[in-house]
Amino acid sequence: MILTGAEIKREHASGRIRIEPFNVKNVQPNSYDFHLGDTVLTYKDVELDVHKENETEETLIPKDGLLLTPNKIYLASSREVIGSDHYAPTFGSKSGAARTGIFSHLSCGLVDIGSHGRLTLQLHVVQPVKIYPGMRIAQVIFWKPQGEITLYDGKYQGAEGPQASRIHRDFL
Description:
By secondary structure, the chain is mainly beta. It contains two helices and eleven strands. Its EC number is 3.5.4.13.
């Protein structure tokens, strides 16, 4: 079952959904719009190795925009802290962003129940396009789980900005 916008507002007010900062203007019929943070990470190496931590470079997104180009991995984050111990959030691009060729996540848009932090977005573009800090980039949807809940306590918990892959920790 997916929550309606009215239910997202009620569950946020009750503390069962965390969105900080929360703005009622971002509530949609069955989702909540969230904004792009101020930085992006890019990998320094052309070839990445999942067995090791890959070096990244952080770039502040200028107020006059940052041009993204195809065939490069850009990791960004939501400006908002988002999570729930009661619902399973998923997220995807806002249709306006997608229609300019900005895809905020092509896979793994599921946020585990119990995860709280800024969502990391893997930005992919099909042609050069500018992004801006604070732009509405994506929307989060909340799903009611069925069955016993086990809260997430993994390697990305409490993320404060874009997070590079930590897959190398799976090999330790």
